[in-house]
Protein 1
Amino acid sequence: MKGAELKVSPFFWAAAALMWLLAGLPVFVATASAAILHELGHAVAVAAFSGKIRAVRLEPDGLLLETEFEKLPSYGGELVCIAAGPAANAAAGFLFAAFARNGGFYLLAGVNLALAAFNLLPAAGFDGGRIFLLVTARFFGPDRAERAARAVDVAAAAAVTAGAAWVYFNGGGGLALLCAMLYIAGRIMYNR
């Protein structure tokens, strides 16, 4: 990532401070380290396919890499680059779980596994959404893949919204969780 530009959204700092205040320092550090590991997974795969990281963006919902390739990788190569982030989190999560002897390792295991699963949601704006689009395009063509992805995005946004309402009204989460889940639903539809 040498030479990559760092782009920081002004809302990143507000989101980071809010997370620190609501979740506490241990959860904040575990989440930040998992997010960095996730993007490093992507960066290693991008480098393996002769790509470069142009910029690292710090956004309210996490870190994002802007990449460029001299020659675009195949569907398979792009799949590897995209899946590398969740794979890094899953590997770290299982590793931390295997060696967990205290709460810190359990927290790191849980955050990494949750981030891997969360990023594999087959919806726009998530690694899983891009994976879904690439796999569908490979078998059914780009036009059908776009139509299928739009339908999955609407279903995912509806499911997240319904889940948020259910959790909130059944006492399983506070207002912060409700807002976070509604933000995710909005993000899915906005990225589409």
Protein 2
Amino acid sequence: MFAEYLGLADDSIIKEECINKYNHRLDYKKKRFTSGCVAKTFRVCKSECKYVMKVQPLIDREYYKEYIKNEIKLVKYVCKNSNLTGKYYKDWNCNGSNYLVIKYVNGDILSKYPTKKIDKKIIKEMLKSLYRLHKIGVIHRDLKSSNIIITNDGSVKLIDFGQSSLYKKLNKYDRRMAYRWDFKRLLSTLKTKKVNKRLLTYANEYIKRYNLIIQ
């Protein structure tokens, strides 16, 4: 348990203050490597394993509570049916916060990955990862450079499934439009990254072929 690793009595008292207090036990001191509007994400170690711990306050709003539940459900589902994201470890609620822990993925998020290193192989991996996500019935809905990880071996992982949906909840038309929206968001992200025009053309051709499949 992380509480044992951090030297605490039990998981129920782990809070950000505890993380800061025991920062010498973190892989990197106070290593917060992403921070959204509300959630904060830390990298922690347990024995020889590295994990990502996402801390989200349980705001007293029904929408946000559903958002957290949905993310946990989708992470478990994606992990069970593919290797497209970090492996789920555990989650728990305590002291007004939710803690979601997954296996750390060695690599860089797209926003920090050097543009000059993005080649046709990596573009293809991005497109294939999104295609495989759709094949298991998941629509991401929030693709952006901070939600795409390029691993050290050149594969691509997707993260942050808080706004994702299972296609079974959508009718055929909405599902098709959502699939296309995912790919358009990916293409827009690559343009923002100022990827080589030749690679953008390749991505466009792939997306056009995919659109024919989902007619």
Protein 3
Amino acid sequence: MQTAPFDCNFENPSYATVEGFAGYVFLDAERVSVSKYMYEVLPENLEHYMTEIPEYARGARPFAEIMINHGKNPKNATYAYAVLPYADEEKTALYAKSVPFEILSNTPVCPAVRKASVGITAIVFYEAGECAGISADKACIVTLTESEGVLKVKVCEPTNKEDFVTVRIARALSPVALDRHISAECTDVTTLTVETELSVGEGYEAEFKIK
């Protein structure tokens, strides 16, 4: 439904939807600011875009902005939300009533979530750190998928700055299949050494049997 431009705040909302685009479920948001406005790509700014802007997109068009508002000079503030592409209000509201994943950590060093129903844990290490029994010596992304006694671990180093990343898992595992860029030492703790030089952000996977 088309609406006129507006700017407003909502206290402790559980979700928001942008019709035809996505639903947003808020897990940690005391105040959310929402605005709609007309935006136009000015001719003098076209040269700053990496791709050519088609003619139909150069005129003034409506934009919606949703912002988790921490106010002025926040300290140690956090936020968490889920994006549901193309979800309508009904689907978004249903998702918000029973969020199917758990936030394991929400710190500047290591945000992490787990969806138990599918056995997936996803961890982003912005620097060396530890979370949920997983540690990394450098910035990287680690995803773990557990099913029927098998654990698959994928490691990605998206900064393209490190030649090697070491990931430790506080579990006894037995290797089944390792990507050629991964070596593993398996004791009571499983240590993965991942060669990330020239990986260009590609993720490398190892598969283990859980002892």
Protein 4
Amino acid sequence: MKKFLAILFLGLLLFNDLSADEDLKASNFINEFNQDISKTLVDDLYSPEVDKKVNELIYKNFDVKGIGIYSINKYKTKYKTKKINDYNKYFKEYFVKSLKKRILKISSESKIISQLIINDKYTLVNSEFQNLKMTWRVYTKDPNNFLIRDIVIDNLSLAKTTKKEFETILEKNNFDLEILINMLKKEVN
């Protein structure tokens, strides 16, 4: 009986260690992304090789298409598939350029301070850089393919800000997606 209880106790300890590792997967994912960005940014950000590496890291770790669709979701049923595909193409370039300009340097030097598992689909990972607080919204439904869906810096959500900006542009221009696409083209060139 003592042997059985010892094995059961050991099994529970191992299980708890494994579930603790599972709980930290989102934090580890953000840490790895930040470390990869940090290693890449050691070189000149404007060299074509470094730029290409940074783009690959963003495409691999962010749900760029999901963020793009979220940004026009309220109106997407108004548009034909070809227009949505054109929008997705230019949004992808715009998002990457915008992200590189705004936050990559900050994120690469941030430190994870906590995380909160919201449900089986989302985990919030909190990090800090100097006095800036960052919250990473990580889509965790597929345990083999975590994706960043939003970054909130000092209570300002990148996804929600982009959505509001795009909604305003569409509303001011009679919901003409082509105008938004042209604005995105201009931004990326």
